[in-house]
Amino acid sequence: MWRRFVRRLSINISIIFILSGCSLFEYHPYEVIVPDDERDLNVHAIQTIQNDVAEKDTMTLILMGDTQRFYDDVDAFVSSANQHAADFVILNGDITDFGINDEFHWVHSIMKKLNKPYLAVIGNHDLSGNGELVFEKMYGPLNYSFIKNDFKFIFLNTNSREYNFNGHVPDTTWLKNELKGDDFKHAVVSSHVPPFDDDFDPAMEHAYARILHESNKVDVSLHGHTHKYSNTQPYEDGIQYIVSTAMNDRMYLILKLWDDKYNVEEIYY
Predict the structure, then answer these.
(1) What domains are there in the chain, each with its CATH number?
(2) Nearest partner of 240 among 206, 265, 212, 268, judged by Cα
(3) Is beta strand 230-232 parallel, antiparallel or unpaired with respect to 88-91?
(4) Cross-strand bridge partners of residue 118
(5) What percent of the chain is predicted at pLDDT more than 90?
(6) In whole angstroms, what is the distance from residue 83 CA to residue 118 CA?
(7) Do 102 and 35 touch, CB atoms closer than 8 A?
(8) How is residue 122 annotated by DSSP?
(9) What interhelical angle do 101-111 and 131-138 show, nearest 10?
(10) What is the pLDDT of residue 32?
(11) Which is nearest to 74 in space by CA: 45, 112, 125, 40?
(12) pTM higher than 0.85
C-alpha cells in the first residue's frame, strides 16, 4: 500500500516537472516573460525608420487607436494598412485590456505582419498589473523621441489617473526639454490620453498645452483613449489635437506632414 502511494506520488511530481518544463502553463497571469526577439521593439523600429526612410520633405504616418482585445479587427487593419504607403505606424496606447504579458504578445504577433515599422505608446489599460514592466521590456521607455527629416517625434506617458494625479505624469520637464533645440524644425507629440480628458491630471492640463504652444514647433498632437475620432483645436492656439478611434470601429488615419502643414485622411476597412 505504502509503495503504491509513493509510486503514484513520484509519477505525479514527474508530470508536474514535465509540464512546467514544456511551458504548457504559466504560474501567474501577470508573469513577465518577454522573449529576446520581442524586446526593445520601439528601439528597433526607430532604427529601421532612420535607416530605411528616405530624406524628403513630407512624412506620412498611420495613426491607429486602442487595440485591446480587438484581435480580428487589428488583423484586418494590418491587411488594409499594408496597401497604403506610409513611413511608419503609431499604435497610440491601450495595446492590451488588462496589462497581461500574453495580450502584449498577441497584439505584436499580428502587428509584426505590417510591411512598415510601428511604434507603440503606453495606455492606461497597459498599466494594469505588471503591464508597465512588460511594456518597458517589450517596447522600451515610456517617454522617448527621435528626429527624422526635420521632424521630432515625441512619445510620452499621459495616463495621469493611473498615478493618482501625482503631478508627475506627464513629465512636463522632460517634454519641455525635448521641444528645445535647433536640430529639428517641427515636432509631433503623441500620447494616449489627450489633455482635455478627465483621465489627464486637471492641474496640469493648461500648463501642458502651454508647453506645446510656446515651443513654436508643435502643429499636431496625436492621441487615443476616447474610442472616438476627433480633430479639434480645444485651446485655440493653432495646435490640432487629433484623436483616433479604437480598432473595433475599423477606422484609422493617414497623416501627411510637411513644413508646418498637415493633412488627415480617414480610412475605413
Answers:
(1) 34-268 (3.60.21.10)
(2) 212
(3) unpaired
(4) 89
(5) 86
(6) 15
(7) no
(8) -
(9) 40
(10) 82
(11) 112
(12) yes
